[in-house]
Amino acid sequence: MVTLLSTKLSLDEIIGQMLSTVGDSKEQIFEISEKSRKEYESLQKELNEVRENVASVIDKTERTEMQARFARNRLAEVSRHFQDYTNEDVKKAYERANELQVNLAVLEQEEKQLRERRDTIERRLVQLEGTLERAETLVSQVTVVYNFLAGDLKEAGEMIEDAKEKQQFGLKIIEAQEEERKRVAREIHDGPAQMIANVLLRSELVERVKSEQGVDKAMEEIQDLRTMIKSSLGEVRRIIYDLRPMALDDLGLVPTLNKYLSNLEESTNMNVRFTSLGKDDVRLSPNLEVGLFRIVQEAVQNAYKHAAPSDVQVKIEMKRSTVSIVIKDDGKGFDPSAAKDNSFGLMGMRERINALGGELTIDSAPGKGTVIMLHVTLDGSTGQGSDSA
User: Fold this and answer.
1) Span 372-389, pLDDT tens digits
2) DSSP 382
3) Which residue intervals of the chain bear CATH 3.30.565.10?
């Protein structure tokens, strides 16, 4: 208890530090965003002024260029008829042409500088737009993180209390997965793999039997091979069915449950009764059908392994808006409130029904059997499918 309390206090301190750091980071990002926004507005204003100046300089340049062309023509005219003009007229024509040429060069240089400044501002504005967009995204993301730390993680104390149980459950799942892989590997090795090897060996003998004992004997060997192949195919299909019932995709939940429970009754000494009420043709989302099938499978397997029942009843009622399932057995029963090493099956069922957004209740007592009830409301979160044709 002391260790749990100290862990909780330590976690609260860590969360407090994280909140402080995330809050400071958010403020810094906001400051960067505001500085960038102010620079963007200032540059946008300057860009408008530069564009106006460029337009004004271009207009001046065009007028000056036209005046310079007239001045050069005037200078050429004076030069050709030098004797008809006074020295003062020649001097004025030359000075006017030179002045306009200098003014034109100055205007062209000014236009070039203004264009370069305009291009620089436009590039900087594009960069600032990217910075502002990234800053807004970061502020949004940091806000989400801050809210998560300030809200959800404050309930971490409650999460710590069942952390050990969750960890054991996770380890149990891994162990169960490994055991399932070993079981499937053993079944394939001892069943289909051995039979296929035997088929291969005997197929090599068919020609020898034909040559030594005749066609009729060879045909008998081929018939035996066909029987073995059919048996092997049946074993493969059974293994595939255990991993993922194909009928679940093709026929739906009710027919698959009916077939599974019938097979279970044939392979055990239990009397298994299955009842379906409501709309059997309603199809659910694939995830929901698989989840409900696995819960029923887990429930009846738990009863078979641990409760030693003689009678198991499974009833499903399907409506357009709800699905209800009841699994009842007359086995030894147990105390649901008592923690047991083998209670991970029940925990797994609860995890599945929580993932489906449904409810699960367990009523049991030692010597009185067990009743498990499932209820799922069909809505957008569960994804009810359309009715099959």
Assistant:
1) 999 999 875 444 443 433
2) T
3) 247-377
